[in-house]
Amino acid sequence: MSTFVFPESIKSRPTYGKLQNRLGKSYFFISDAEGAEAIIELASNDPGLMTKSHVVYIPKDTGDQYLKKLDALNINQLYVGPSYSAAQSRILQTFEQAHMGLQVCLTGTEGLIGQALRDAEAAGIPYTSIQTEHRGSLSRRMQCVHCKGITEDVILDPFVCSHCGLNLFVRDHYSRRLAAFQGVCIDAEDPGNVPESVELYK
Amino acid sequence: MSGAEKINVKVTNIVKLNDLVTRFEFKRTDGGLFPTFSGGAHTVIELQDGDLIRRNPYSLMSDPMDQDRYSISVRRDDEGRGGSLFLHNKIKIGDDVVLSHPVNLFSLDLRAKKHLMIAGGIGITPFLAQIKQLDRSHGNWELHYSVRNQSLGTYVDDLMSMHPNDVNVYYDDEKNFIDIINLLDGQPLGTHLYICGPKGMIDWVVGEASNLGWPSESIHYEEFLAPQPGKPFQVKLSASDKVVNVGENESLLEAIEREGVDAPYLCRGGACGQCETSVVEADGEFIHRDHWLDDEVKLSGKKIMPCVSRFNGKTLILDR
Question: Between chains, do A99 and B185 touch, taking CB under 8 Å as contact?
Answer without folding.
Answer: yes
